[in-house]
Amino acid sequence: MCELPAKAEGPSPDHEDDQGRARDACDRNGGGEADGEVRQPVVVDLPMPPSVNAIWKAGRGGQLYRSPKYSAWLKEAGWELKRQRPGKVEGPYTADIILRPKTNRRRDAHNFPKGILDLLKDHAVTDDDSLIPYPCPRWWAEGDEHIEPGWCRVIVRAAA
């Protein structure tokens, strides 16, 4: 597994850039070595999921059901995932999620991983989202690899 630079003493404006460069190097080099074998990360591009706040709707009697927006996203993203034919990451894993919404409207990046992680589990890319200590979502930034507006890139690696 790739090691990110240790946190510097005190605030450092370059620290975030160092972590991003180290993470990018991990992406290009297959994630690192474990037991003498190189494990390639699974990288997929998916349409932006709905926020976790828009996944469920309450019906009569308070029963929850999938919202039409979430159901449509699951179908579209599922076909996109099948088209890309990702490999499988077994056991504990990490997930870097780079989000690029169509607009610059203010929102919370941590509201988006739920749908993505459930999709990966449902399509057998990962075993279960209980095996991830925490997802790492972030917004796309200038200088990142190209991601279409309204899409996200998901990089899944076996945990060390």
Largest pleated sheet: 4 strands, mixed
| CATH topology name of the largest domain | 60s Ribosomal Protein L30, Chain: A
Mean pLDDT: 79
Q: C-alpha Rg, in Å?
A: 17 Å
| Helix-strand sequence | HEEEEEHEHEE
CATH architecture of the largest domain: 2-Layer Sandwich
Strand order of the largest sheet: 3-8-6-7
**Count of DSSP H/I helices:** 3
- Number of extended strands: 8
Q: Report helical residue fraction.
A: 25-40%
What are the segments in which pLDDT stays under 50 over at least 5 consecutive residues?
1-38
> Which class best fits the helix and strand makeup?
alpha+beta
What would CATH call the class of the largest domain? Answer: Alpha Beta
Distance between the termini: 6 Å
- Rough shape? globular
β-strand amount? 15-25%
Total domain units: 2
CATH superfamily of the largest domain: Holliday junction resolvase RusA
Describe the secondary structure blueprint for this structure.
Blueprint: H1 15-28, E1 33-34, E2 37-38, E3 42-47, E4 56-58, E5 64-66, H2 68-84, E6 93-100, H3 113-122, E7 136-139, E8 151-158
Parallel strand pairs: 6-7
Antiparallel strand pairs: 1-2, 3-8, 4-5, 6-8
